[in-house]
Amino acid sequence: MLRRSLSSFVLVISVLISSSVAMAEVSGDGDSSSSAAVHIIYTEKPLNEEPEAFHLRTLSSVLGSEEAAKKALIYSYKNAASGFSAKLTPEQVSQISTLPGVLQVVPSRTLQLHSGPGIHKKM
């Protein structure tokens, strides 16, 4: 049972990451910041604030305005994990990594899920 739950969790996270990358590619606006890349920012769960408001406030402190934060924010994770994905430059990644409540910042990656006849074998 634990193995099945872990597999489901990994699948959900993989789908979330893949959808973040897909949304970033679709919403690419061709701005002059060519070194910016999509990152997943894992945060503590905010206690007295809506997650998206916390995510925007965190981004705003690095990007300088709420408008810039809204433009950079790709997705807010509220259920399986606490955090958000955003398009950030390496300098912005360094800055946001030091903020209170930010646990980890990782580059977004697309992972291929493999399936085949062996995946459904009973153990």
Distance between the terminal alpha carbons, to the nearest Å? Answer: 11 Å
Task: Give the CA-based shape.
Answer: globular
Q: Taking all residues together, what is the mean pLDDT?
A: 78
Strand order of the largest sheet: 2-3-1-4
- Count of helical segments? 4
How much of the sequence lies in strands comes to: 15-25%
Give unreliable regions as ranges: 20-32
Largest sheet: 4 strands, antiparallel
Q: Decide which structural class fits the backbone.
A: alpha+beta
Which series of helices and strands comes N to C? HEHHEEHE
Task: Determine the fraction of residues in helical runs and give it as a percent range.
Answer: 40-55%
The tally of strands reads: 4
Could you tell me the radius of gyration in angstroms?
A: 16 Å
Sum this structure up briefly.
By secondary structure, the chain is of the alpha+beta class.
Which helices and strands occur, and which strands form pairs?
Blueprint: H1 2-26, E1 37-43, H2 51-63, H3 66-72, E2 73-77, E3 83-88, H4 90-97, E4 102-107
Antiparallel strand pairs: 1-3, 1-4, 2-3
Helix pairs in contact: 2-3
